[in-house]
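User: I'm designing a mutation panel for DUF3619 family protein and want to avoid disrupting the core. Could you give me a predicted structure to guide residue selection? Please restate the sequence first so the numbering is unambiguous.

Assistant: Good idea. Sequence first, for numbering, then the predicted structure tokens:
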Amino acid sequence: MNTKVPTSQSNAAEDRFGQRLAARLSDGNQALPHDISERLRIARAQAVAARKQVPQLRTAPVAIQSGHTVTLGGSWWTRIGSVVPLIALVAGLITISVMQDDDRASELAEVDSALLTGDLPPAAYTDPGFAQFLKADSASD
């Protein structure tokens, strides 16, 4: 059975557990030699200091309104870094479009040159009887 405890209740339970554990450790501290208790005190202080440090998360640029314009907060590198992928995408799409147009033009040029240099006149290709002739000829092969 998987039950979820609300966050405030789980935090309170963790706090109570921590307090009970600290009290239990403090009770046994009286019987320890001085040098060991000093090392434990220093280790405890270091642990508390490490716990209080909150890792600083890297934040995203914030939009700042100054007057009637809205600017993107952050350094110039952040701004450039957010624009470069967009420029690369647009350049890639333009390159693909140009390459497809060139391929299409070369295919049409090949068809046109085959039509013009062939033995048949171009009007023969539009004749419905010629299309039937080609179908019957390919069926007999």
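For picking mutation sites, this is relevant: Residues 10-52 form one domain. The chain has two domains: 10-52, 73-140.
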